[in-house]
């Protein structure tokens, strides 16, 4: 994983923690926000797998981050 990808994951964790501090307005808010955070994490984490499986298709500058 690149440094920037790790930073994105850390920021997603911070966003989740801050959201959990908010007053509950709708009973599904927490569950839906959790799903959205997990979806974003999956997208970021998949990038490392895509680079590994397709090294010839990913430009070199992105491999060296």
Describe what is shown at a glance.
The protein is an all-alpha fold and 65 residues long. The protein contains three helices and no strands.
Written account of the structure:
This protein has 65 residues and is mainly alpha-helical. The mean pLDDT is 90.
User: What class do helices, strands and sheet pairing give?
Assistant: mainly alpha
**Mean pLDDT across residues:** 90
What characteristic shape results from the CA principal axes?
elongated
Number of strands: 0
**First and last CA, distance:** 8 Å
What profile does the largest beta sheet have? none
H/E order of the elements? Answer: HHH
Topology:
Elements: H1 3-20, H2 29-53, H3 60-63
Helix pairs in contact: 1-2
Task: Note the main attributes of this structure.
65 residues, mainly alpha
